[in-house]
Design brief:
The chain is about 85% helix and about 0% strand. The two termini are about 55 Å apart. It has twelve helices and no strands. By secondary structure, the chain is mainly α. About 30% of the residues are buried. The longest helix has about 50 residues. It folds into two domains: about 110 residues, no CATH class; about 170 residues. This is AI-2E family transporter.
């Protein structure tokens, strides 16, 4: 270093020099993370179906391996599990839609009575509004709909385009799921070839740990979502709330977004109860949802999720928030599974003794690899 530069550098505190060194490195890391997120967002049509396929693989792989180990051909086992899963999902969906169609007229009738009761209360109650004022308010609302008709139409066209993207993504998801179940371990083995040989075994162990946590998260979340849907749906059915089964199905789907998913979808049940049964039933419905959420937070999550994935609740909330800001509902859905995977992946990758770290995870969460196999099974499929 030139003497002048050395002399000038002596005027800077070592703390400032260290802070500056950290600052430009952190800026580079943030820039790299930003570029990575933008690339993922740009290829979201591909990334999201593949990520969902990995989660579904974590759920279906034990069944495929069980059939494979009992003499069934691998391809036949995959076909059976997929056809069975699609049949169950399609049957449930058809049943829910049928229930919705049958229950909609009753809901419309009850909502109509509620509207008429509200109209009478506004006219004869403390508000003492005239019929002309109510009719004027209705006409204003109708005129607003007509004024924004073009925007509503463009929104419908945008929704149609979104449906096309969803169908394309569903096809890619199914295609990826089939190949993950057929030969995901071989795919992971091929991917790790890009890693230098001296680090390849460590990456294998990290991949096994990450996928094991992802599988545990998927199974635990499915169980928690099922319990939420059954508990809230039973409460709605006991109170005679219309569309109890479709609402329970929405709660089941929403529960896959931890912490807030079931609460947000349950709010729809509160609205239906308010329109169909009145304020008292709406408050009771809200109380049932809050009670189930408390049961989930203090009993189900620690017993079920805590055994499968060790993630601090603050990390879950921050991950959900960041995922929702970056990618909306899909981001919130995939944030926690991604945290579960990379939490175990990085812990094993950064461990001083990967074998000891793997054994530690094994003792906590179950086997990461098949001890009876000559070939390690670290793949995410």
């Amino acid at each position: 270093m030139p003497p002048a530069a050395d002399h000038a550098d002596n005027w800077v505190s070592p703390l400032v020099r260290a802070s500056a060194a950290w600052a430009w490195r952190l800026l580079l890391l943030l820039a790299a993370a930003y570029v990575l997120l933008e690339v993922l967002r740009l290829f979201g049509v591909v990334v999201v179906p593949v990520a969902l396929a990995l989660i579904l693989t974590a759920l279906a792989l034990p069944a495929v391996d069980f059939l494979d180990s009992h003499g069934a051909a691998r391809g036949g086992a995959v076909a059976f599990v997929l056809v069975f899963g699609l049949a169950v999902f399609g049957g449930i969906l058809a049943f829910v839609v049928n229930q919705f169609i049958e229950g909609a007229p009753q809901l419309v009738e009850q909502v109509t009575r509620s509207i008429e009761g509200t109209r009478d209360w506004l006219i004869n109650g403390p508000a003492e509004l005239s019929r002309d004022q109510l009719n004027k308010a209705v006409d204003t609302f109708t005129e607003a709909l007509r004024t924004h008709q073009a925007q509503l139409t463009s929104g419908a066209l945008s929704t149609a385009g979104t449906i096309v993207e969803i169908l394309a993504g569903a096809f890619l998801l199914l295609f990826a799921l089939i190949f993950f179940l057929l030969g995901g371990r071989s795919i992971w083995h091929f991917v790790t070839r890009v890693v230098p040989p001296e680090h390849r075994a460590r990456v294998h162990e990290a991949g096994a740990a990450g996928f094991h946590s992802l599988a545990g998260y998927a199974r635990a979340t499915s169980l928690v979502a099922f319990v939420d849907a059954v508990a809230i749906g039973s409460g709605l059915a006991i109170m005679g709330i219309p569309l109890a089964l479709p609402l329970a199905s929405l709660i089941f789907l929403g529960a896959f977004i931890p912490v807030v998913g079931a609460l947000v979808t349950g709010f729809l049940a509160v609205i239906v109860a308010l329109l169909a049964k009145g304020v008292i039933y709406a408050l009771i419905t809200f109380g049932v949802i809050v009670a189930v959420m408390q049961l989930e937070a203090h009993v189900l999550q620690p017993l079920v999720m805590g055994r499968a994935v060790s993630i601090h609740p603050l990390a879950v909330v921050l991950g959900l928030t960041a995922g929702g800001v970056l990618a909306g509902i899909i981001g919130a859905l995939l944030a926690v599974p991604a945290i579960a995977f990379f939490n175990s992946f990085v812990r094993v990758l950064a461990a001083d003794d990967p074998g000891a770290r793997t054994q530690e995870l094994d003792n906590e969460d179950g086997p990461l690899v098949d001890a009876g196999s000559d070939e390690p099974q670290p793949s995410p499929a």
